[in-house]
Amino acid sequence: MLQKSLAFAAVVLLCVSIPAVAQSNFAALSGSVADVQGRPVSDARIEVRAKATGLVRSVPLNSNGYFEVAGLSPGDYGIEARATGFTTIEQPVRLEVGQQMRLDLTLSLGEKRESVDVIGRAEVLKTSDASLGEVVETKSIEELPLNGRMLLDLALTVPGAHHSHGAQAGDMNPLYWRPGQPSAISISGSRPNANYFLIDGVTNTDPTFNTQNISLSPDMVQEFKVQTGSYAAELGGAGGGQINIVTRTGTSQFHGTLYEFLRNNAMDARTFNEMEGATIWCGTTTGDR
């Protein structure tokens, strides 16, 4: 009986853990390594180094020369491929939230101490999935003006997204709605209650009204992706837009944010009836001037 109970508990834990892994904000890098004649270099190794933290992950290739590195946080990376008898190649890449990138590398014959540095980033085509959407990057979050510092206002910069109405507006009866958590955004013509919100791969969607549970400060967010259609199965929590937010993480460099919040009427323009010394004249004029 004890063994059956333990087996049942293991099955339950496995089933519970599958959804948590499926819907993820992490990126994945896959590809192949071949020589100049297109033959796979199966004894090569791939090193992925995070520029922000210096963390290095090393993976081997399979017999066909293919590799895959999953669970990578969004950010800048340096990819290095090395094999005995070939020149080492290094290439920078930038991974975005939830991105499935494929990178095929070619090694040329050379001595072990030689290396090839790829300075520029090549445009990487999306070949692993057919999802549609845009990523709101760190530069946009830091520099675009936000009235009230509401992060979701930046989702309106994505094509196909616009303000909508309903319970998700956050201005209804506070006993039944979520005041101060506006998330009434229509994406690709869908209703605002059809959107799905994620923070670091964890559900941030109110199950009652399909609003966002927590509205994060822009200073906490690294980037977020708004998928508008043809998204993968792990983002199937709702049929509308999928808003996947990634928070900032620590790096090997000191950084922080400083801002001032000021609200008064000292610099406001005067209203129409407060204007002094103005003469208002209404009438008709005939003849030439």
Describe the structure.
The protein has two helices and 15 strands. It is mainly β and 289 residues long. The protein has a five-stranded mixed β-sheet with strand order 3-2-5-6-8, with no helix packed on it. The N and C termini lie far apart (105 Å).
Record the SSE blueprint:
Elements: H1 2-22, E1 27-35, E2 45-50, E3 56-60, E4 66-72, E5 75-82, E6 88-95, E7 100-107, E8 115-117, E9 132-136, H2 138-143, E10 161-163, E11 185-187, E12 196-199, E13 202-203, E14 221-229, E15 242-247
Parallel strand pairs: 1-7, 6-8, 12-15
Antiparallel strand pairs: 1-4, 2-3, 2-5, 5-6, 9-14, 10-11, 12-13, 14-15
Task: Fill in the keyword field for this structure.
5-stranded mixed beta sheet; 289 residues; mainly beta; 2 helices
Give the structure's gist in a few sentences.
With 289 residues, the chain is mainly beta. It is built from two helices and 15 strands. The strands form four sheets. A five-stranded mixed sheet has the order 3-2-5-6-8, with no helix packed on it. Strands 9-14-15-12-13 form a five-stranded mixed sheet.
